[in-house]
Amino acid sequence: MSTLLESFNYVRPTNLDQLNLLVMDYITKGYDFTFSAGGTDIIPRLKKQIFNPENLISLSGISDLKGIEKKGEIIIIGALTTLDDLANHDLIKKYFPTLAHAAHKVASPQIRNRATLGGNIMVDNRCSYINQSSLNRDCHAPCFKADGDICHIVKRAKRGDEVLCQARFVSDTAPVLLLLEANITIMGQGGLRKIKLNDLYLNDGIDNRSLRKDELITKIEVKIPENESLHYEKLAIRNALDFPSLGVAVCLSEQNLSVALTGLNPRPGLFKAKIKNYNNFDEMVSDICDQALAFAVTYNQDFFPRAYRKSMIPVFIKRGISNILKEKK
Amino acid sequence: MVDLTKGYPDKGYKIIGKPVPLIDSRAKVMGQALYTDDIRLHNPLTIKILRSPYPSANILSLDTKDALALKGVKGILTGADFKNTFGVLTISKDEPAIARDVVRYEGEPIAAVAAETETIAEAALKLIKVNYEITEAVLDSKTALKPTDRPLHPELNKENNLHKKVLQEFGDMEQGFSEADVVIEKRFRFASINHGFTEPHATQVEIDNKGNITVYSATQVPHYLHMAMAEVLEIPEHNIRIVKPHLGGGFGGKSDPFPHEMIAAKFALDLGRNVKIKFTREEVFFSHHGRHQTDLTMKLGFSKEKGITALGLDTLIDGGAYGSFGIVTTYYNGVLLQGPYKIPNFRFHVNRMYTNKPMCGAMRGHGGVNPRFASEVLLDMACAEIGLDPAETRLKMIHKENTLTTNEFRITSVGLQNGLKEAMRRTKWHEKYGKLPFGKGIGVACGFFISGSALPIHWNKLPSSTVRMTIDHDGGVTVYSGATDIGQGSDTMLAQMAAEVLGQSLGNIKVISADTRITPVDLGSYSSRVTFMAGNASRNAAIRMRKILVEAACALLDIDPPKYEKPEKSKDFFRQGGLKPDFEQGFLGPNPDYSDGFIFEDGLIRSENHNQSVTFLEAVEKALEFEGILQTSGTYRAPKLGGKFKGAGAGLSPSYSFTAFIVEVTVDSETGFIKVDKATCAHDCGFPLNPLAVNGQIEGCIHMGLGQALMEEMVYDNGATQNPSFLDYKIPSAFEQPVVDIVPTFSDDSEGPFGAKEAGEGILAPIIPAIANAVYDAVGIRLTQLPMRPDRVIFALEKAKKDKGATS
Q1: ipTM of the complex, rounded to two decimals
Q2: Where are any strands of DSSP class E within B396-528?
Q3: CB-CB: which of A128, A135, A303 is closest to B730?
Q4: Is the pTM of this model over 0.95?
Q5: All domains of chain B in start order, with CATH
């Protein structure tokens, strides 16, 4: 309802040392804080008072976290590289055209000019009940994600359930990066650690990332594919300014077929199959579709009804494969 | 550059009919135009509204003590502070400025705070304690039909939540259906949609030391706001001045007086301080006033020889919590079907229901859009069943010029036939219809709309529009009009009228509009009335001015001034315009012929007979010698129209526009996505005064129609608006806009100013059924629910497959 942000303390360190000192200081003092990269996901949530941090640490001044470089067969992408820079970078267009495409499918030019790759893989899970104005949230009882005791889309849900909150994972770039087996470097008070991107994601709409409060992603590393071909297709009612109602990335190599899903469950889906024999390729495709369908948990928390979104999974997987095969010819 | 005048007759005008950019466009694109919220008043208080989180509740108690005690809070208003309710229609003034005792929709104002800053005002809202008793909400129009002890509006003394019922029948329905070769009946459903204008509601109020207020507001209807505000605040109208600054889109969504306008004015009066309020986008959605959610069943009788033999419909529209324009909407759901084809036997029954949702009201194409979809789809079905070409069939059925419809609408000019024929030629209709591969389709639909409501909302004998015109000492012309430019370009149109009649460049005309202290009354921007009515008024003011200048020129040239004889009254009911101006009457007549033997051009006024001239400025100076001031007025009055039956006034207009669309689509049968590839539009707006502006309206109508057709809908859960943002309320992006081909289409309207009719609303309705009919041509399914979302396409495709399997 508000046009104003609640007040908070805004800090903008300009290098990694300053940042580390600041975080250490906040932790020692027990301050509440959160990081902001491009701000395009956080600012709307602040405005809607979905969360109100005491301190907002902007990462936008840290130039070390920007840029794309090639080291041998690895492309290293700074986490603060904007989606626009990513989509238009020669290295990305050359080696990862599907990643450029997925980045280009995010939101609008204005948002892509600010939003970062790190931000997009960290974008908070969404649900039509939590991502609302405070007035709308007042109209319904507070849900689990708003520290309440009810889920409006899974009415029977209760605390202690394995998956408490069904807020959806909505990153467009993550499914492509998952198929490229991207690694991410995480910086925290304990130093640096490197994990597979897939290990970042947890299957709950509230606690949906495996990062500690003090941790942030500094870079994304992707190996240049040898013979893999990828395709990403996004389901959204319009061609701009939408989160994916469903996103399907497909990767086909001579040995493997893999699929990653976004826009459905609290975490992205990732399925792989070894191609042993091209004669039963169709069978394998239908097998991977079955896996995806078994994984997909859809609820009516999106523009499209759940049944439709689910029914589009095999359609998109098959389209992805046939597009790749078409391009190969 | 494309020559936009190509295809239209050359009538020898200098400014009229030429593509001219809107006179305020440069200021707008440069960011210099001031919208309501851009105005900087001295030290204003900021107003924030506390809104109900419940759709239906009783307010048991309301405690504002703590909020008032907050430093910087200057005042708080609640329902108890307003005695009178209001509404745009005199017959349904049912809306309070702030809910009093009863809450009727989620988002309804419960209290308002005026404070030194927005932050303080927001903090104060949180300190207001409201004790609600939640009551059972009526959430859909079907439930609203059921008897209840607790109707939303007990003052109506009804046993259910019916707001307005209209039933009209013309001819003999049974006879009509018996003459038909095919009778088709189908049920249709339409989601409620929002206008989606760019500028959120905003109001600022300035108060002087005598208690006079100037209300700057984003409104389409300064005059109605003026009257409603005087009534609600119980002060004389002359203490209130309404000013409409630049406005960022209306589409009917700013055509009511609004609670926040009453609240702001009341605060200014009570506190003696300037105040301001602006809505967030969410508040815009909460207050809504959009197109009604509609359930309708329509039955069409169609004969191969006679065309439509009968059309009947039963309609239920969900009005939400208050009346707004709803009574008009109720009528328009029926009467706007009276064109573009003759319907000999016609019956409609529409119920508007009150429910615990944000109110619905007027929106572009008002009331006519949803039934138009149904009738054009049914007509397409009838053609398919009989094996007729749907475009050729329509072409034959379009009203001839100068006829009366079954419900006694006077149809004067009709130019659609040529436009539709040209659209068919351009699209290669005959080569494509029924012949494209599966997934590709072409469809046609037509529409029709009023060029202004002939009758005023508040019954009175005043002209529909009055324009004042002055000329300065240096020859600069100023047009003063109450007409409300809401982005559609009415200021430019008014200037074009004056420029053409007085032989001036557009740059020499200044327009001051929509300021109730300075400008004469115009009823506002709704029902596509402004060009026809205010345009005629501006033209007439200029003609009176021209007479003064001609007489001054004659005095200078020492020749006899032309004799202005009283014209003979037209005996032709269908052609009352284009006569000589009647200078003895206040109203010169519609679109009078002002030729007077003089030519105004190149800064000169020249007598054709004497081949002598004076400069425009010399004539101005001479005229000023007589009066000391050069000032005229011009008016417009609609002719006497309509039948004698109850409700005969609804839909009466001095003229009607006609539209045809041919739309080409690609349907993805696996995902259900409809892609509109191309829209070819033929719109008969009489003679287009400014083809650039007309084309802009056509392109905008296509985009807006696309939204309702494919994706827009208000989503409610238990009365709560679930998509109150432009992220979640889906308006098409630029990517979805099809290739647009505009077919020059025109007619000779004797009464429209320079022959013009409306071009703002009628275009919207037929694009939607044209898409649906193209989808049928592409994949063989009939969609009967809007929006035509991909999942509905898939559902219909699967059903069609099943049905086919069952029959084969």
Answers
A1: 0.96
A2: 403-404, 410-411, 440-450, 465-471, 477-481, 509-513
A3: A303
A4: yes
A5: 36-137+195-287 (3.90.1170.50), 293-454+645-807 (3.30.365.10), 456-636 (3.30.365.10)
